[in-house]
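**Protein of interest**
===
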Amino acid sequence: MGYDAKTWADIPAGHDNPLNFAVTSRDRQLIEMVTDAVKNDRVMLAYQAIVPAGAPARPALYEGLIRVMDTTGRIIPACDFIAEIEATETGRIIDCIALEQGLKAMHDYPDLRLAINMSARSIGYPRWNEILRRGLRGDPTAGERLILEITESSAMLVPELVVSFMTDLQSEGVSFALDDFGSGYTSFRYLKSFYFDILKIDGQFIRGVAHDPDNQVLTNAMLSIAEQFDMICIAESVETAEDAHYLQRIGMDCLQGYFFGAPTVRPPWDTTAWESASA
């Protein structure tokens, strides 16, 4: 028996075939899991070191990466859920929590320089802006120690708004990083206008770069762009000594990845946290 237009119209979105149903169900479960974590205060930052390429023994700064804990106690990284929540109210609340926790860490540790991820959608979110302004007012050194990371795809949602927002905050000392560069579709016209302070090369071009001629060409090209626009260039997802040595040799400014340390929810600079955990 055939199906008429009304029959198809009655089928809820995402239920038209088994694959779409499975994807829709998974997305709904992720959103519910993150929403529950937010309601029950199971959201935290994991910190990962970013080191100078020529002197990796001492981190130049840290990135605060959002994590949530599910009901079983598993810590879930942002890459497992951020795409599903970014355009939702929960996404805005996650950005608020990340910024609030990051600013608190900077207040508690005055030597800490910290990068915090944000979505361009949060620029117009009142609660996020109030947290930022309160943090900058409460600590005269916070602006010069705070880096806000915006992904390439997020920045391109509202490029004119991002440019204006960056200009205002850079006058207060805040730095901006273009995250995951190379993974999206940045217009070079906007790249010239953005005035990012830092460019972070997406890990897909960095993993195995020491032995991959294609990635070497692309990484060198992105490094040249950063140099042309006076941006510090950071290579993400550095996982081997060979890749680290190659990146240092071509003049990369900073390196970030598991070779130098995995993200940890215990602040690496806080020795009391380690002492309490081992007691």
User: Anything to note?
Assistant: Confidence is low (pLDDT under 50) at residues 5-9, 273-279.
